[in-house]
């Protein structure tokens, strides 16, 4: 529960500090006195966004600080998960600087607005008139039913699986699109791949084949040239080989006379050995040379295949063709992988669907079981609020679609009087009836909610007299379960509070200020009397005020 609130330099408030107690507190004041400013300040503490218009003095910072007693609400895990110091008396502070920047602190540790908003969900619910209109929204109606049916954990589990289910469905659709796009190219890619595989390409093949082609295509010229070279080398009388041997013999005779001659002998000996080896190699080459037209034609065909593939794929080497072949193989393989992935993902989605169906069925059964309980409680409370003939027709049916909170479709219909047909709330319920229905809903939820504090902002719109008294009694009863604030214009409700605060506005010179004050017993009598009769307080108004308070 909120135990204190201090405000400095915010809107019409220069400085304010007020303590709150548990139970039921009422807040009254003239229209425009600043009740919305108090709510705005609390909203900032709860993580709403701020701007420079919030500052009363644009040259000073605005500070709003609220203390919360959270000892009973098991929030230690939140503080631990957000790396914050836990304190039973937790302090939340917002600062708005003249530069427009905003800072937030929980127990003096800086936090971002998201963390502040997450914590606020466990602290305060501010019920505005807009929320009363939201009662006609199907999601809000489901939340009411699910709170009574205790569906929170089941829906949480359902939503966790639903998130994965939707993500996997999106991924599956993407894969199927890729598969369809790939399938269009698959036949052509397979044809190209088959061509390359049939060519049996290897790195360096082109150079070897081109060399072999040149040999076979010029075999006669090559043989003639080698044979002529062999004849020159080995002719018995004047051949190079014979002449080299004669030179070697001549040098052997003088080699011992000088190192120069010895060196010449070594060199001619080496040259003779090398020349003999060349002659033998030429002989072997000559023996290997065969005129083979068939082999020449085979090599020519293979080279033509390579040239054709290079032109088709716009590359200049066999290595480039091999790279394209590898890419095509990967493309074909990828399509196979996509099919396998689609199969796996489809199986996963089917399993997730089964889990979702099971959880949705549990949610549906819980709702179905507790709808009569909710309807009965609403009818009972509304009967005390002057709606004795009210009826609700709440039907849920399961669909094939997965919604954020299950598979149910809800029809929440209402009839206020005997003999009238059921209709949609916002179409058939008046403003006063909507206010009473919302109060009945909040009264029921108070028993199921662990929320410490609930603030009603003029939930009494459209009611008066005896109904207002009963609304006040219901809020008083709710305050046994949680801390309740009611901002009201009705004296009947104001009189039911355990504590009564008044918001007032005053003008001092050129400055206008709002303040919030806790009323004592005498001030409270006067305030309620003024609410009954206006600024001129009559004795009957005072007596009526005392009667309401008693």
From TrEMBL:
Give the keywords, sorted: ATP-binding, DNA damage, DNA repair, Nucleotide-binding
InterPro entries linked to this entry: DNA_recomb/repair_RecN, P-loop_NTPase, RecF/RecN/SMC_N
Q: Does the keyword NADP apply?
A: no
Function text: May be involved in recombinational repair of damaged DNA.
Q: Domain (RecF/RecN/SMC N-terminal): give its ranges.
A: 2-505
Recorded hits in SUPFAM superfamilies, A to Z, give: P-loop containing nucleoside triphosphate hydrolases (SSF52540)
One GO MF term, please?
A: ATP binding
Q: Which GO terms describe its biological process?
A: DNA recombination; DNA repair; SOS response
- Superkingdom of origin: Bacteria
Q: Name one Pfam family in it.
A: SMC_N
Q: Which Gene3D superfamilies match?
A: P-loop containing nucleotide triphosphate hydrolases (3.40.50.300)
Q: Which family does it belong to?
A: Belongs to the RecN family.
What protein name is recorded for this chain?
DNA repair protein RecN
Which GO CC annotations does the UniProt entry carry? bacterial nucleoid
């Amino acid at each position: 529960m909120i135990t204190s609130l201090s405000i400095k330099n915010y809107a019409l408030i220069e400085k304010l500090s007020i303590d709150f107690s548990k139970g039921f507190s009422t807040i009254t004041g003239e229209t425009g006195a600043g009740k919305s400013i108090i709510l705005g300040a609390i909203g900032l503490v709860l993580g709403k966004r701020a701007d420079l218009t919030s500052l009363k003095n644009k040259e000073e910072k605005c500070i709003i600080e609220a203390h919360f007693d959270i000892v009973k609400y098991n929030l230690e895990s939140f503080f631990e998960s957000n790396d914050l110091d836990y304190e039973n008396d937790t302090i939340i502070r917002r600062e708005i600087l003249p530069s427009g920047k905003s800072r937030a602190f929980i127990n003096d540790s800086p936090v971002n607005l998201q963390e502040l908003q997450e914590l606020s969900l466990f602290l305060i619910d501010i019920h505005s008139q807009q929320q009363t209109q939201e009662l006609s929204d199907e999601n809000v109606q489901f939340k009411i039913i699910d709170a009574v049916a205790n569906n929170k954990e089941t829906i949480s589990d359902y939503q966790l699986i639903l998130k994965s289910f939707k993500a996997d469905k999106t991924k599956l659709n993407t894969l199927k699109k890729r598969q369809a796009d790939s399938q269009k190219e698959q036949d052509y890619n397979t044809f190209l791949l088959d061509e390359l595989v049939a060519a049996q390409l290897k790195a360096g093949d082109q150079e070897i084949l081109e060399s072999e082609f040149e040999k076979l295509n010029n075999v006669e010229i090559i043989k003639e040239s080698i044979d002529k070279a062999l004849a020159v080398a080995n002719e018995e009388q004047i051949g190079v080989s014979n002449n080299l041997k004669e030179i070697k013999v001549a040098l052997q005779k003088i080699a011992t006379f000088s190192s120069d001659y010895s060196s010449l002998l070594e060199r001619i000996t080496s040259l003779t050995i090398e020349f003999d080896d060349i002659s033998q190699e030429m002989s072997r080459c000559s023996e290997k040379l065969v005129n083979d037209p068939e082999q020449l034609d085979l090599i020519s065909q293979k080279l033509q295949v390579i040239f054709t593939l290079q032109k088709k794929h716009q590359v200049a080497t066999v290595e480039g063709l091999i790279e394209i072949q590898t890419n095509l193989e990967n493309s074909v393989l990828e399509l196979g992988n996509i099919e396998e992935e689609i199969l796996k993902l489809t199986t996963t989605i089917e399993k997730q669907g089964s889990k979702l169906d099971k959880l949705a069925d549990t949610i549906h059964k819980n709702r179905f079981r507790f709808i009569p309980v909710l309807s009965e409680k609403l009818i009972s409370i509304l009967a005390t609020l002057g709606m004795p003939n009210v009826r609700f027709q709440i039907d849920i049916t399961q669909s094939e679609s997965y919604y954020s909170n299950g598979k149910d479709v809800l029809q929440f219909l209402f009839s206020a009087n005997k003999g009238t047909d059921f209709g949609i709330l916002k179409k058939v319920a008046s403003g006063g009836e909507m206010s009473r229905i919302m109060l009945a809903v909040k009264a029921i939820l108070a028993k199921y909610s662990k929320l410490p504090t609930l603030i009603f902002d003029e939930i009494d719109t459209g009611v008066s007299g005896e109904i207002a008294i009963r609304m006040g009694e219901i809020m008083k009863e709710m305050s046994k379960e949680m801390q309740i604030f009611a901002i009201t214009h009705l004296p009947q409700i104001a009189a039911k509070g355990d504590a009564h605060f008044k918001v007032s506005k005053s003008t001092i010179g050129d400055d206008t200020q709002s303040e919030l004050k806790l009323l004592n017993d005498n001030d409270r009598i006067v305030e309620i009397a003024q609410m009954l009769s206006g600024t001129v307080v009559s004795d009957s108004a005072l007596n009526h005020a005392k009667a309401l308070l008693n």
